[in-house]
Amino acid sequence: MTVPRVLLVDDQPDFAKGLVRLLTPKLPGTQIDYVLDAEAALKDLETTPCDVLVTDLRMPGISGLDLVPRALALHPRLGVVVLTAHGDIDSAVLALKAGAYDFLTKPVDSDHLTRVITNGLERAALLRENQRLRAAVAACGNQVGLLGTSAAMRRVHQAIAAIAASDYTVLVRGESGTGKELAARAIHALSRRADGPFISVNCPAIPEPLLESELFGHVRGAFTGAQRDRRGLFVAAHGGVLMLDEIGDLPMNLQTKLLRVLQENEVRPVGASKSIPIDVRIVAVTNQDLEAKIAAKSFREDLYYRLNVLSLTLPPLRERRDDIPLLATAFLERTCRELGVGDKEFSPEALALLSAHNWPGNVRELLNCVRRAAVFSPGDVISAAAITQAEGLQGAAEDDPSAIAPYHAAKARVLDTFTRRYVERVLTHTRGNISEAARISGLERMSFQKILKRLAIDAESFRLRP
Questions:
Q1: In the prediction, which pLDDT does 401 show?
Q2: Rounded to whole angstroms, how far apart are CA atoms 8 and 53?
Q3: Domains along the chain?
Q4: C-beta of residue 183 within 8 angstroms of C-beta of residue 172
Q5: Which of 196, 368, 412, 438 could disulfide-link 239, Cβ–Cβ 3.0 to 4.6 Å?
Q6: 177 — phi, psi (to 5°)?
Q7: pTM exceeds cut of 0.70
Q8: At what angle do helices 362-376 and 324-339 cross, to 10 degrees?
Q9: Residue 198 belongs to what H/E stretch?
Q10: What CA–CA distance (Å, rounded) separates 33 from 39?
Q11: Better pLDDT: 411 or 324
Q12: Phi, psi of 445, rounded to the nearest 5 degrees
């Protein structure tokens, strides 16, 4: 696991050392280093990863203002915080426009500095996580389907990395639309077989008389119409991964033959007298209850245990609601590129509505909803009304009684989500001016401050952002 790192830049040694002593107990598990000028900072950044850079503005040689763009050129995802005297506010604003994350005036309030750095570290961790996952699913056409920072998706990411390191057979389970094929592709992309083929076959989509030939191949004359030899998908996937989609629908006679392939690591084409050795990793995928099918005698128990060496279950979207805003935003960005239109964004109310829905069709349903909303929303902002029109959402889904929370709890969750998004947007617009934000909101200043306190929102962090 990467240790988060903060680099302090200040030409006053006593001040820099004091900040290190001050921040070390407040940021446990974080490496905090310092250098005394911008040149040393740039040399450090060339060789050592860094999450947050805290720099003074006025320094001999290269100034903090010049350091900001050069540091970001080395690490585009670096969070930069600028320290400045009260008389240098204009320079600090220029630093923000150059890409700095935030700025603070001296003398520095330790608690405020800690909060700002913590926000920067969280931002860096989020960017690293998303970058890692994008790399894992780089082979997919739909790169955002497995994005997520919720506890459930962090467990999925960890499981995918662990599974990819081995070569055992995998059983991927989950409801329709949860991203099972994306998970299979991510396992392949991270494994030693990444340079080999990835072949997917939807078992129920191929008529049973043809499926055996499709999987195992056939020799010329094996049956009417077999005019030449055909190699099957197992042979085609040699050195790579064969994904058997909807394995629960595999006919019983083919289950027996698949079991033999898994046991012997060889296939015998239809009509052949000799078997062909293969080196293929099997990833079986299903949204069915295989244990129930075993009890009903429609799925072989011994095949189940052969397939279920390693198991991965994709959570439904309703169990990771915190990921919905991230997913929806990523889908919207991609949809705008597909449509060839300018960037659009969701209103806070729209994101709250999306987050409250249960999404029985999971990620696939969310993607379709975003596409419809983007097509039928002519402006730059997609409103809650546009989401309602696109999907018929009225809040939490009514088709899953087991997932419905008590009325007051569900209402409070939706209201809190909406309130947080709304307040953050207003503060961004007013650059942290609470009085102006309260006026725009139609609230008393004291009432607005109570909301900030209840939701633990720091208005000062929005101050003078570009």
A1: 44
A2: 6
A3: 5-131 (3.40.50.2300), 151-315 (3.40.50.300), 319-462 (1.10.8.60)
A4: yes
A5: 196
A6: 85, 10
A7: no
A8: 50
A9: strand 198-202
A10: 15
A11: 324
A12: -60, -40
216, 268 in Cβ contact below 8 A? Answer: yes
- DSSP symbol at 402: G
DSSP letter string over 159-196? HHHHHHTS---EEEEE-TTS-HHHHHHHHHHHSTTTTS
Task: Report the relative pairing of strands 241-245 and 230-231 from DSSP bridges.
Answer: unpaired
3-state secondary structure 423-438: HHHHHHHHCCCHHHHH
- Report the pLDDT averaged over residues 370-397: 77
Polymer length in residues for the chain: 466
Query: Rounded to the nearest 10 degrees, what angle do helices 208-216 and 252-264 cross at?
Result: 10
Compute the distance between CA of residue 201 and CA of residue 215 in angstroms, rounded to an integer. Answer: 9
Looking only at the bridges linking them, the beta strands covering 52-56 and 5-9 are parallel
Report the alpha-carbon distance of residue 176 to residue 364 in Å, rounded.
Answer: 8
| Pairwise CA distance, residues 24 & 116, whole Å | 15
pLDDT of 13 > 60? The answer is: yes
Q: Please tell me whether residue 335 adopts helix, strand or coil conformation.
A: helix
Residues 186 and 136: beta-carbon distance below 8 Å: yes
C-alpha count within 13 angstroms, C-beta hemisphere, residue 292: 6
Give, in degrees to the nearest 5, the angle at Cα 324 between 322 and 330: 125
Q: What is the CB-side half-sphere exposure of residue 340 using CA atoms within 13 A? A: 0
How many other C-beta atoms lie within 10 A of the C-beta of residue 374? 21
Task: Determine the pLDDT at residue 94.
Answer: 82
**Rounded CA gap, 408 and 11, in Å?**
55
pLDDT, tens digit (0-9, with 9 covering 90-100), for 106-119: 888 888 899 889 88
DSSP 8-state code for residue 384 = H
Owner of token pair 């009260």: 86
